[in-house]
Every structure is written in C-alpha cells, then in structure tokens.
Amino acid sequence: MTSYPPAPEFAAQANADAALYERARADRDGFWAEQANRLHWHKPFTEVLDWTDAPVARWFGDGELNVAYNCLDRHVIDGHGDQVAIHWEGEPGDSRAITYAELLDEVCRAANTFTALGLVPGDRVAIYMPMVPEAIVTMLACARLGLTHSVVFAGFSPTALRQRVDDAEARLIVTTDGQWRRGKPAALKYAVDEALGSDPSSVEHVLVVRRVGLDVPWTEVRDLWWDETVAAASPSHEAQPFPAEHPLFILYTSGTTGKPKGILHTTGGYLTQTAYTHHNVFDHKPGHDIYWCTADIGWVTGHSYIVYGPLANRATQVVYEGTPNSPDEHRHFQIIEKYGVTIYYTAPTLIRTFMKWGRDIPDAHDLSTLRLLGSVGEPINPEAWRWYREVFGANNTPIVDTWWQTETGAIMIAPLPGVTAAKPGAAMGPLPGISAQVVDDDGTPVGSDESGLLVLDQPWPSMLRGIWNDMDRYRETYWQRFASEGWYFAGDGAKLDADGDLWILGRVDDVMNVSGHRISTAEVESALVGHPAVAEAAVVGASDETTGQGIVAFVILTGSAAAADALVSELKAAVSLEISPIARPREIHIVPELPKTRSGKIMRRLLRDVAEGRELGDTSTLVDPTVFEAIATA
Ligand code: 6R9
C-alpha cells in the first residue's frame, strides 16, 4: 500500500511533531491541561478530568471562561482587531470582509439585544439560518451570554424545526427572511411561522435578518427585525466568565430511532479540543493562512471548524453562502483563487462531484496557494483521495482524513500533517491525547488485517455530556454496548490493516450517510407511513457513487391505493417536505411484502442486497423466504 509521507518542507514548518504523541502518552492529563491553557481562563482550573460520574465527564471543572472572549476579545486586545476574521462570499456575488474588531462589535450588539429580550444564562435559542455572517454572530452572542444555542439546518422542514424547538424549549428563534438558492430567493421566515402555527410554544420572539428582501408574514410584538434591534443596540458589552461545564450548545442528530437526539456540548473541554485539533490537524498559522471549511453551520463541522476552533485560533477564513454550482461549477475554484485559500476542508461527496464535473474546471484556476486539504463526513475512497491530492494539491499537499462525530465534538482520528505518512482512504490513527480501539463483539481487540467495532476507551475533552432531556438514552446508545469495559461505542465499523493503521468502514447501525449527512432509516420510514397510501415501509442506504449512500425505500401500499409513477414522486416529495430534501429517497419500490425475521424485525441487510443488485444473502431466518421473488420483480 502506497503511503504519502509529508514533504520535508512541510514537516519542517508544521505545528505538530512526533513528540506530541509521546507527550500525550507520558501524561495524558498534563497534555490536555497544556492544550486548555492555550485558551484564556478568567479563573484558571486546577483539576483536569473528573470521571467519577461516568459516562458524564467534567473537564477543567473548577475553571471559568467565556467562549466569545476567547474567539474575539482577546485577539482584539492582543492588537489583531484589524485582521479579517471572515471573508464572506454571498451566493449572488456580494461579499463582506469582517475584521475581528467588527465581529466583536456585532456580537456585543446582538448580546445586548438578547439581554434586552430577557434571556438569561441557560436559556435556549434556536438558530434557523443560511450561511450569513449573522448566523455566526448569533452563535457567538449566545456563547457570550451563556445561552445554549440549537442550530437547526435551514434545509430542514417546519415539522423538523418545531420538533427541535419544542424539545429544547427555545425562547428565541433567530432566522432570515429567506435564503439564496441557485440564483433565486427562497422563503425561510415563512417556515418558522408554519412551524410555530397557532399552538402555544416556548418561543417568545422571532428575530429576523433581512437577507433576500422577501415579504414575510409578521406577528407584532413576537417578531423583530435584526436591522431595527441589533443594529441599534450598544456595541459595548463585557463578557462574563462561565464554569467550564456550562452548556454551550445542543445539536440534533439522527439516531437509530425516528426521534432525533439533542447532543449536548459544554464549554471548556469543547473549546480546548476544537482549538487544539484545528491548530495541529490543519497546521493553521494565524495571520498567514486563509482557511476554508465548506460545511454549513447546521452541522457539527460548521460549529467546530467554522465557528469555534478557527475563531479561537484567530483564523482568517472564507465563509460561502451558496452551492458549489452557482452560478456554475467553477464557483469553489474561483473562491479559492480569489482569496488565496491555503487550507481547504470538505466532504468526499463533493470531491466525487468535482470528479464527475471534470478536471478541466479546477485546471482552469490557480490553486497553487493550497497547502493542506481535509476530508470529513464519510469514508473517502482511495480514488477520490488521489484525485483530490493531484488536482487540488498539485500532488504535494498533505490530506487529513478526519474521523469524528457530532457526539465527539472535535476530530478524534486523523493523520497529523507533517508527521504521518498517510494512506489514501485511511483515517490512520487516534490523535495525541485520544485513545481508540477496534474490537470484536466481545470487546477483544482485533489484530492487524482484521475488522471490528470502533470504540473510544478513554474520555476526551470535547465529548458530549449527554442527550438533552434523555440521559437514559445517552447511556443506552453509547455506553451499554461495552458497559463492563466502560467504552464509548461510536456506531462505526473499522479495520486495522497489516501495519496497524485504522480505516473507517462506516455505520454498523440503522443510520444512513447521504452526502455526509446522517439520516436514520426510521425517520424516513415514519415520513413514508405518514402518507395515507402507505401501509408499511422499509428503508435502506444503498451504496451510491456520488453521495456515498442513496436512500432506497420499499413500501407496501394500503389496500385502496393504486401503484403509479405519480405516487412514487408524491412519496418522494412527502419525505422532502416532512424531513428535508436531503432525505428524499433515490428510489422507491412498491412491493407486496417485506422480508421479516420471526421476531418481526425487517431484514434490512437483505433489502440492501436487493437495492445494490447483489445475490441474496442468507434468507433462512425469514418467515417467508418467497417474499423475495415478489420484491425482486417488483
Ligand atoms: C463530523 C461528522 C458522524 C459519522 C461517523 C461516521 C461518518 C465522519 C468520517 C466518517 C469515515 C471519516 N464519518 N467522518 N467516516 N471517515 N473521516 O461528520 O459528524 O454528522 O455526526 O457524522 O459520519 O460514520 O459516525 P456526524
């Protein structure tokens, strides 16, 4: 297996060296204390980790800090107020350069506005916004005040928004009038009104940023314009310290049941690990690099590697509002060229899309400023890895394939650029300070050239502290599988190769990964059976050349419904509407029967075989093995 050692010039200037592994191995707590001390603590911590209440960790428990102070004030105080924090690029071609001083100013105004609305530390704020600077301002203003934000991806439906707002009991929703989507304004505030409806809710105010100039429905007193409130508020605000374990945000993610889990993250450990990983894995140099993470703030990657990690490290970054093909497929490459992007972090699904569009598109641009490339969200196939390095990286840049999850809060497994000789498609190994194992069903570590389940056998600073409103589910989902060992079960399969390097194989549960987005089979099934024509539904993720997995649904119709192409389109639209366009099934097959075990469980493995056009595996546990003849011909 070819590996790609770092170029000597890169290694010579890299932030991380091999000694970092040694240091972390020799004294894990001391190592993490050093990382935490890269932040500003209003009150220094004296204790590093308290694991006595496992699986709920306390990191730096007696310390106090303010996240927004760390991301903004201290850089301005240190004389970097004029450094650009965000080069924001709007979809229609408008742009804004926002310095650290300006960002601080905006965040203070927003914080004063939220305080005037009566919000107090611990209150929850829902953020339902496209990639506009005000979304980042809102997150930081919440952090500054000790408010817990819950960002809901702006592509989610009103139903999904309502579910999340209710679960978190948000008092405020911050949104925009609409968002640009491929050259057209699309309504967004409208969806908030639909979500809130006329049923009583916890929401007292809806704060609306004007982005596209659409007319919006308006409820007096409840609804407020950003440009009439925040813009008019005072820009001076003193950041108060909060305990290290103060809740910072909730972010909902799909689990194996239909109900999304509100993953809870806290302050000190989270900021420590996002800043540490952003510094070492991306080799980020403040004042020199132009960093671009292409994620949306609706996902954890946007939280950790657009907002908190980069800003804590005083990055200058590009934030882009739109899709990679607006107005055409050159957009990302033009942006890289325009700003001289040096570090680019994206998802394999986009790399495969670029491959499909053809290399003459990137070749038409000067990408020579790029010096490091990152990948996240799903396994990157070796072919895409090599293409990425060759076409984006002039066959020279390191690629960091970063494995982590909403739950882990920050990168856990990745090569260290400048140190690791990376292999295309491999996440390689746990970062310094992180400990992971690949084990079999009984918890016995697998040997080289074997695969098993990925577990994290030591607590880490940015780990989730629970599931909002459901600590039982927290214990069950992550800690029950290897309860006697006390390990965190990630839900992913992994393999160790002959050299002992780690490869992530993907989910081993009923969670699909479509273009790097987690969607549970149960969620899509419940959206389908919500349609009157559907009696029963089973959903699987089938491998897909571009999106990693595609959603394939098998449905049984109610007696009266007639099978028709129109119905299939209607069902696809129903899923988009109920969950999000991301969850729209690639295929829907109308079938007379579903394969079930004697205990009534749908055999998804077999349906996946059908969806991927494979020979059927073992059907012996089926109640009625003949159902497959009907399904295969349906
Ligand atoms: C950050 C993020 C987490 C799931 C995770 C795994 C998959 C993420 C990966 C990867 C292989 C990588 N995943 N990074 N698989 N290689 N580098 O994506 O969080 O949305 O919670 O998804 O994504 O299956 O369990 P999240």
UniProtKB/TrEMBL annotation:
This is Acetate--CoA ligase. Residues 523-601 form the AMP-binding enzyme C-terminal domain. One of its GO terms (molecular function) is AMP binding. PANTHER family: ACETYL-COENZYME A SYNTHETASE (PTHR24095), ACETYL-COENZYME A SYNTHETASE 1 (PTHR24095:SF14). Residues 19-71 form the Acetyl-coenzyme A synthetase N-terminal domain. CDD domains: ACS. It is an enzyme of class 6 (ligase). GO terms for cellular component: cytosol. It comes from the Bacteria. Belongs to the ATP-dependent AMP-binding enzyme family. Residues 77-468 form the AMP-dependent synthetase/ligase domain. Keywords: Acetylation, ATP-binding, Ligase, Nucleotide-binding. One of its GO terms (biological process) is acetyl-CoA biosynthetic process from acetate. Its EC number is 6.2.1.1. NCBIfam families: Ac_CoA_lig_AcsA (TIGR02188), PRK00174.1 (NF001208).
